[in-house]
Hints:
single chain, 213 residues, alpha/beta, Rossmann fold, seven-stranded mixed sheet, 7 strands, 44% helix, 24% strand, binds S-adenosylmethionine
Amino acid sequence: MGDAGRKAGDVKTEQTRRRYDRIAPLYDSMEWLAERSAMSDWREELWSRVEGKRVLEVGVGTGKNIPFYSSGTRVTAIDLSPRMITRARKRAEALKVEVDLRVMDVQSLDFPDQAFDAIVTSCVFCSVPDPVRGFEELRRVLRPEGRGYFLEHVLSERRGARQLMEAINPMVVRMMGANIDRRTRQNLERAGFTIESEEDLWLDIVKLYVARP
Ligand SMILES: C[S@@+](CC[C@H](N)C(=O)[O-])C[C@H]1O[C@@H](n2cnc3c(N)ncnc32)[C@H](O)[C@@H]1O
């Protein structure tokens, strides 16, 4: 990538950080309905799959996954937004769960190669400005026998839904900071991951991918 491309990426990343810093105090209320109707079941499903001791959660947000961490694991959790990390820290303290929480950008991770046995995300790659770069970094820090577990919403492959999602994506980005037109399977593959399984959790829009590096 040239200097201009890198600068544009930096600007987008900074905008994302600011947006999530702004949303942080409201995030749990905004997500309340989704959480009650389906999301917390999906979280349980996601974390029941995770194998390995050293786990990296990316985009921890306010820490909604923390109740689902398994007691045998050592979790490091990162987020681009310092205010999200502050909220996640409060939740971890309230639940008495030990988590190594850090402000960090998934597109440029401050971890050595092969540092983790498992990587988990939920609804994160919709807002990462360069998702392929982010997945490349995750592949680098995952040990070769490890797995990535990605619960993500993606662009539908059904024509009508796809066209609608593409058409309203700019508005959704402005309002929520989330892209609803992400081709996450292709992005994972472009970053060098091999998809082991892909499950539809809701229509063909909310997916759970398990991938190896
Ligand atoms: C929609 S929220 C999801 C939060 C949480 N995973 C959940 O399930 O409730 C997306 C989160 O990803 C974080 N995020 C966005 N871009 C990121 C990046 N480049 N690196 C790390 N975290 C990022 C945001 O700050 C935000 O907390």
